[in-house]
């Protein structure tokens, strides 16, 4: 059976898009992992003496936490989760955190999405539960 040339081109473009998006997603996971482990974990360790590992919560718990956007209920630090993936925050810690310096000019929304992807990928009920080590 001979496929018309437009159909072959459409199939090739679709396969290329699938391959490209899979590669891009892997990159987001890597950056989310880097950000969470090098920035979130180090700050939690310093501030409260305990890292918060992705595998300490279920996927639904992480979704609810992100949706609520309540990082610090005590008022000792910024109350928004989203704030901690902004350039403004990275600026404040770049002198003592190499990952923050390296990611200084990264897009805030992309980093926020990357961290969320990492949390989902590594949650307690995921196929890849991950701690902070």
**What is the domain total for the residues?**
1
Along the chain, the helix and strand elements come as: HHHHH
Beta fraction of the residues? under 5%
User: What is the rounded Rg?
Assistant: 19 Å
Contiguous uncertain segments of 5+ residues: 11-25
Structural class: mainly alpha
Mean pLDDT: 83
Q: Give the helix level as a range of percent.
A: 55-70%
Extended strand count:
0
**Number of alpha- plus pi-helical segments:** 5
Question: What distance lies between the first and last C-alpha atoms, to the nearest angstrom?
Answer: 54 Å
Largest sheet: none
From the spread of the alpha carbons, the general shape counts as: globular
Assembly state here? single chain
Question: Can you put this structure into words, describing what you see?
Answer:
61% of the residues lie in helices and 0% in strands. With 133 residues, the protein is mostly helical. The chain has one domain (29-122). α1 (5-48) packs across α5. The protein starts with a helix and ends in an 11-residue tail after the last helix.
Present the secondary structure layout.
Layout: H1 5-48, H2 59-68, H3 87-93, H4 98-102, H5 108-122
Helix pairs in contact: 1-5, 2-5
Which descriptors apply to this entry?
single chain, 133 residues, mainly alpha, 0% strand
Quick rundown:
With 133 residues, this protein is mainly alpha-helical. The chain has helices spanning 5-48, 59-68, 87-93, 98-102, 108-122.
């Amino acid at each position: 059976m001979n496929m018309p040339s437009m159909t072959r081109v459409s199939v090739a473009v679709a396969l290329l898009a699938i391959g490209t998006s899979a590669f891009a997603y892997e990159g987001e996971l890597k950056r989310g992992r880097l950000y969470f482990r090098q920035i979130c974990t180090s700050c939690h360790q310093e501030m409260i003496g305990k890292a918060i590992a992705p595998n300490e919560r279920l996927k639904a718990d992480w979704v609810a936490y992100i949706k609520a956007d309540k990082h610090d209920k005590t008022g000792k630090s910024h109350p928004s989760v989203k704030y901690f993936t902004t350039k403004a925050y990275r600026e404040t810690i770049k002198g003592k955190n190499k990952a923050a310096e390296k990611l200084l000019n990264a897009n805030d929304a992309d980093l926020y999405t990357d961290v969320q992807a990492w949390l989902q990928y590594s949650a307690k009920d995921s196929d890849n539960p991950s701690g902070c080590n």
